[in-house]
Amino acid sequence: MKTKKSHKGKVVTFGEVLMRLSPTENRKLQQASNLDFFFGGTEMNVAASLAYLGVEVQHVTNVSKDFVGESAIAALRKFGIDVSAVKKVDHPLGIYFLEVGSAMRSSQISYNRLHSSFANITAESVDWENILEDADYFHWAGISPAVSEGAYQTLKRGLEIAREKKITVTTDPAYRSNLWNYGRKSNDVLSELIDLSSVFIGGVNEINEILESDYAFDEEGFVVASKALITAHPSIKKIFDKVRTSVSSSWQKVYGRAWTGEKYLQSEELEVRDVVDRIGTGDAYAAGILYGLQFFDDQHVLNFANAACALKHTHVGDANLVSVEEVEEVVNGNVSGRIKR
Amino acid sequence: MKTKKSHKGKVVTFGEVLMRLSPTENRKLQQASNLDFFFGGTEMNVAASLAYLGVEVQHVTNVSKDFVGESAIAALRKFGIDVSAVKKVDHPLGIYFLEVGSAMRSSQISYNRLHSSFANITAESVDWENILEDADYFHWAGISPAVSEGAYQTLKRGLEIAREKKITVTTDPAYRSNLWNYGRKSNDVLSELIDLSSVFIGGVNEINEILESDYAFDEEGFVVASKALITAHPSIKKIFDKVRTSVSSSWQKVYGRAWTGEKYLQSEELEVRDVVDRIGTGDAYAAGILYGLQFFDDQHVLNFANAACALKHTHVGDANLVSVEEVEEVVNGNVSGRIKR
Amino acid sequence: MKTKKSHKGKVVTFGEVLMRLSPTENRKLQQASNLDFFFGGTEMNVAASLAYLGVEVQHVTNVSKDFVGESAIAALRKFGIDVSAVKKVDHPLGIYFLEVGSAMRSSQISYNRLHSSFANITAESVDWENILEDADYFHWAGISPAVSEGAYQTLKRGLEIAREKKITVTTDPAYRSNLWNYGRKSNDVLSELIDLSSVFIGGVNEINEILESDYAFDEEGFVVASKALITAHPSIKKIFDKVRTSVSSSWQKVYGRAWTGEKYLQSEELEVRDVVDRIGTGDAYAAGILYGLQFFDDQHVLNFANAACALKHTHVGDANLVSVEEVEEVVNGNVSGRIKR
Amino acid sequence: MKTKKSHKGKVVTFGEVLMRLSPTENRKLQQASNLDFFFGGTEMNVAASLAYLGVEVQHVTNVSKDFVGESAIAALRKFGIDVSAVKKVDHPLGIYFLEVGSAMRSSQISYNRLHSSFANITAESVDWENILEDADYFHWAGISPAVSEGAYQTLKRGLEIAREKKITVTTDPAYRSNLWNYGRKSNDVLSELIDLSSVFIGGVNEINEILESDYAFDEEGFVVASKALITAHPSIKKIFDKVRTSVSSSWQKVYGRAWTGEKYLQSEELEVRDVVDRIGTGDAYAAGILYGLQFFDDQHVLNFANAACALKHTHVGDANLVSVEEVEEVVNGNVSGRIKR
Amino acid sequence: MKTKKSHKGKVVTFGEVLMRLSPTENRKLQQASNLDFFFGGTEMNVAASLAYLGVEVQHVTNVSKDFVGESAIAALRKFGIDVSAVKKVDHPLGIYFLEVGSAMRSSQISYNRLHSSFANITAESVDWENILEDADYFHWAGISPAVSEGAYQTLKRGLEIAREKKITVTTDPAYRSNLWNYGRKSNDVLSELIDLSSVFIGGVNEINEILESDYAFDEEGFVVASKALITAHPSIKKIFDKVRTSVSSSWQKVYGRAWTGEKYLQSEELEVRDVVDRIGTGDAYAAGILYGLQFFDDQHVLNFANAACALKHTHVGDANLVSVEEVEEVVNGNVSGRIKR
Amino acid sequence: MKTKKSHKGKVVTFGEVLMRLSPTENRKLQQASNLDFFFGGTEMNVAASLAYLGVEVQHVTNVSKDFVGESAIAALRKFGIDVSAVKKVDHPLGIYFLEVGSAMRSSQISYNRLHSSFANITAESVDWENILEDADYFHWAGISPAVSEGAYQTLKRGLEIAREKKITVTTDPAYRSNLWNYGRKSNDVLSELIDLSSVFIGGVNEINEILESDYAFDEEGFVVASKALITAHPSIKKIFDKVRTSVSSSWQKVYGRAWTGEKYLQSEELEVRDVVDRIGTGDAYAAGILYGLQFFDDQHVLNFANAACALKHTHVGDANLVSVEEVEEVVNGNVSGRIKR
């Protein structure tokens, strides 16, 4: 591990906290009589992961003003996330149901989020000036501005203030075609927000979506696409991508690749043959990037993020509950899973 | 038991199907990691109960076009309810969370239903003519028209066609002050719909709400209120009320009383000291009335409905899974709970 | 406590081991997706209880030659019962399903035992001479000879050898009208077997069944009936009865009474308002009698058995897992349930 | 997909409904304290699968007249199976226990079915004329006539009436050597019943059993055996076989092959490395054949049935809860298990 | 409610965090195959309760340097307790096992704490100066100095600094005879520490233990004993006692009484007939006192603490998860447990 | 299988019984709310495995004098282990927590055993003369003398008496660097105890530890190390090693190898791609050796032990619940896991 600095800067994340409800034992919902639940959401997952890596992190969101919202807040507290900027409002918490697949059977997700407490957030309700006062990083994902006008405006306001404060902005512009129902075009919004960001955690798919381009997915395509993104959005300095091979629901391979603005980098591929939970693996990767950027050179950032991503597949729930030591062990090639006593 | 006739007529019910999610062992949601779930909803509970009593029953509603909605339909099929008029639409299924209290601690419910598949129902989407073709009874509750304009219009259309077809209409005008957010006044709507109904399953509270009156809750108050209701809404012929004493979350007493248009009747009080589940007990009572009206004289209707209501307290979930024989045993005073081998 | 002697004699019990399957949370079977299971059976319950009271006890039965039978044997071993006389045969283990009631709702039991491994037992397959070699007590219940000709013959042979060996024979002649399907009349069989027994653990109901009499259930009736039983079956020396008041499924009261051949005795009544499990409470009483007969005067035998019976209501499963100390505490009036640290 | 017609014909199935009881987490029964349960049975599994594929299907059987039988009926209703021809009788429902293996450890099954409600079925109790009135297909398996004389006679009577009504009869002649205890020779019975059938869902093993032959298991052997079967039983028009490679309890491969009467066909092999549940996979295949015969050419029938069979390995329980769309996706080569949102 | 002031002062608590492990369904440990777990400990329970009442609270303790200790810390964070003064050391976390009784059957507890991470705490390892810097209250219980010399010395040092800082010290001198094994006499130690405290949350039992006196338990005895305590330990200003009637394990009654230094006060008695969890009810009372002292007159302090105590009986786990509003409702006599929607 | 003799000799084992507590579903402890538990411990696991193989086996240990210790004894009884030499003492039972990994994530174990009931055992408390009276084998592992002086002295005394009685002593000298805290050097103690043993179940690692040597791990290194061990400790006659390849937490390969004093032997390698439980696999191997030594030639001993070890990976819990028949099937190459009906 090559350390660059020792201070761990405070990270602020913004996004919806959803309750996930899923049957165990690969049951279909109609075979179940009870459901496990977890609290997750792409940006909150990044926050939780960072908290476990020892980083100070604050999450900004709305939850419901009822015992469901209180449970969400308690879960965030348990993760070690600063919840002082979480507001309670009179709309229900967002929910998603998950049926977990296996082998060639896909997992299926059904959302109930379009009228949630988060979807009803307003820019005025968030005191960005105060929240971002002592922040070093601000992380957002493309799902939030896709949910509602309020979420979009709130995020935009945050990013503008982050720019003023010279906070590093990272983004996972995850595109979801089945959102974006509130009247704005995804390209317009994402382009605007990417211009307020400097680290892009995404790949050819996301770039093609934003640039309405058609780059290839191979190494060359990734490099060309990355350069085009930087040309179109010069605020972006670095691009970190994650390449997944889904052999089956239960068998996944991942490696990271990056365009640093100067050169192409790639991590080794890691293989998980016995996936415990596929959800949140991209968020674990993003958290690895965010952590790495503070301490490592770019190659190690990639290796660290990819190992974190692989390890997430072995934890149930949306969040990646791994320490820096556990991630570094996998970076160092120890993947034999020997018992630790 | 004094039987009046032997034919069991088909009943049609209309209302939302909600997924109920609750922790076990009296846990607060934030203490739980999994949740039991059941499908319920006041009118669906009546339908399920009637199906277990051996009555042919069809439920009219919207569910979500996803695996959650499919599970709701499967649950209704399991109860033995005709689901051929259930539609799947692109809105999520309504949900409620329940924390179960004990002793002086209240149970708490939090709803997520205002933008549900049912709230988005439209009068045009329901083929009432066909559905009510061979029906003998139509049952509705005051919650449905409180949810949305669509639900109100759909119900009104159904009641108008029921009147044309001379179908007996029963109503449980359950008033919920925290609904009625879509712009109409509850009195106006309920008054209109009660004019299309003939059996009123409610008491002084509900009458006071509808008539904007202030009758007392004692026997005399009930009789006077009932007469006033009939005067104001002459389509109503009979009124069946349920009087509950809530000693604590775990200890309840109930008895039934009625104004038959001619005289006051009252059942014995039944006591449940070890409540298993408080939800749906009013629906069990309504189902008892609906069943009884087909077979019994009014006194026995009351006794039967009250026994059904008491028995519901001993079953987990929203629906009352009891047979006619089990109810009659309690009517006959056998409340000792001896093991049956 | 008044101790008579200090040696604890070996007890032999004979009867079916059944697997009990029941949903939790008072669910009906059709609401459940999994079932708790226990191994029980009236005589085995007596054996298990005696083992926990520190008595050497051996159980004689047949189980299935498969992993179900192996599990039954493992369960008996866990109780501390000597299983060296348990045979494995090519017939399935007997099973019963239990739906647990509450308040006025009865528990329901459904059996699957008529073609079980125990029903197929034969007198030749049991080496009674060897088993009873060092026994001091032999306990049987009226259910066993009600199951099949083989069970009847096997039991009769055991009782005959017990008589030869001058072993004290106790019986709980529990009458079950829905058994006795194999061709013999219950009176004939029970009368014959009672003539081989000396302690009768039953009351007016059972005596009326055997003598085809009609004695009353009050104290006087009990005394007269007891005397009549002894007249008809002079091998019987003492009669221990248990009087239960079933207020509801969840609320039970019990007291013991006895005819010692010379006088009437009665214990105090104990009340269990929060029944955990009703099954096996009679067997806990019988085990208390069997234990008490070895150590106590008749009044203390009654008190001890009644306290054991009451305590069984607080344990889930068929067997009473209490120590002598725990029973004696209740005998001594400590029923406040203070935490023991 | 090459569709032949658009009408989905009604299918009638006949066979035992068993309750399956199994510990979770690969536990042995003696390590467990509770058991998951499902209702299954080879022909009922076919019925359930067809119902999920959108086919109208009615199941003919006996269940117990108790809450266990009621639960079985409720489960069938939940699957969407027509239960109007299910009778309740005074014999217990059949049961089987399952210990689930892993890797080189085999799963083990122990049955309790020889005196079940189904084993006690009688030909007179089934109104085949009425049941088969509007049926297009009748499906049976070799297990039913192996259980009891009554089951055999009932099935034979049904097949004779099916022939009269020119209903297509499909059979899965699954041979089970540990049944056939009631006095008839399996060859005699199966030969007789196959002469009343036209589609044979089985392979060299089953043909060898019926013809008392010794054909090889390779492609050539299968073709020769198929021809010999058709020669001996000219009512059989097509033969659909399933070839399984059991690498371990947790890793299975399957492909389908057929003799259409004119040519040999074969599907691609599908591999399931993470088996969730091995039970009922053959029934899923049979259901795929039955569905496919109504809509597809023979090659697509094979592909569809094989994909359905593979998908069954990913669902817990005996029944295959997949839609036509899910099966077709696998037929089209999408086996990567990507999350569907 | 009569409020005295509006500022909620920070509370510091000191004591062991134990993992509680208990079977569900009133099972004995040997009947169970899994255990529910909670983190508790008398002072931590007070802290958790205060956090739910909205008070800033910090807990001082040692946990194990392993994933068990990390889980304990996460649990405290979830409660909302400040964990910045929790140290991780190379000794295991304390544990206790609990078998939950019912009716006349006592709950039983078995501890494993004598060599725990907390027992190994040292006065030097705690930075009391810093921790108590901004504290308004310091709460300790008699269990901590009973565990080990280190715990005693650490507590004493904290109390001395609290005195210097003029922090209000409250104590629950809970006496446990089966601790105090490390060489000191309980009277000596408790007397010394009480001299550093000003609010005594205990009654005649505790006073008799400390003063080696023999006062009666009635009202007069309590007043006399209280006066004697104040005479002997003049730092004590007020005494708050809790009087419990244990009808059975499942049925408890409690009321509070106090000697304010000037007069005797008493709350109404509250009755819990359906106890969910008996553990931590005294800690809930203490937390109620600590909360009340900041806001209420003494009578309301008593009422509030007693209502909090009663409500704890309805929550599973060691901590009392109630809000101020819920407690006040019970204070105001609303004990009917009506559902809140 | 080549049988040498038919008598199964009694085996005595000595060592700690620990309660294992672990979350299910690969959860981290802090994600769980309940824990599965099992009783295990390396020597007890050998005993349990031998009992399931049909060998008479007695275990010598201390447990706690509370309901935890009683549960441990009941668990041993259930396994079929003779518990007559188990003592109850006033120290808590040893415990370990297990977080189960997957893929590259390691399982983690945290112990609480240094002040346990077993660590407090004394040589005087064990009646070795009587226990070993009719024993043929005595098995010990290197963990026991690493725990405490008392455990070391107790074991040494047992081994000395075993030598006097000419009992075959087998040892698994499992070295655990994080034990040995009580003051003795591991080499000294293990060397002394190995001189009292004749079968060494360990490999190059263990030999290097004992001889402070540095032999290579390949075949040649194993043979040279074995010879050196025998030279240094001539009481050792045979050495049985187990070679494991840990591909990941979920994928393990094992084979056995031996130095018989005369020649090198090796079994085939067995592969478990779907590990259910990794704990106790070495103990299953040791039990296979102990069983095999009584019946087989050395090559079959190796094959049998390795197959037993592989099968353990498919059972949850610490003990290997397999029969001789199941092991022999795997020895014979049947690893396809076909369902057994």
From TrEMBL, chains A, B, C, D, E, F:
It comes from the Bacteria. Residues 10-320 form the Carbohydrate kinase PfkB domain. Gene3D superfamilies: 3.40.1190.20. The keyword Oxidoreductase does not apply. GO terms for molecular function: kinase activity. CDD domains: KdgK. Pfam families: PfkB (PF00294). InterPro entries: Carb_kinase_PfkB-like, PfkB_dom, Ribokinase-like. Keywords: Kinase, Transferase. Belongs to the carbohydrate kinase PfkB family. This is Sugar kinase. It comes from Autumnicola psychrophila.
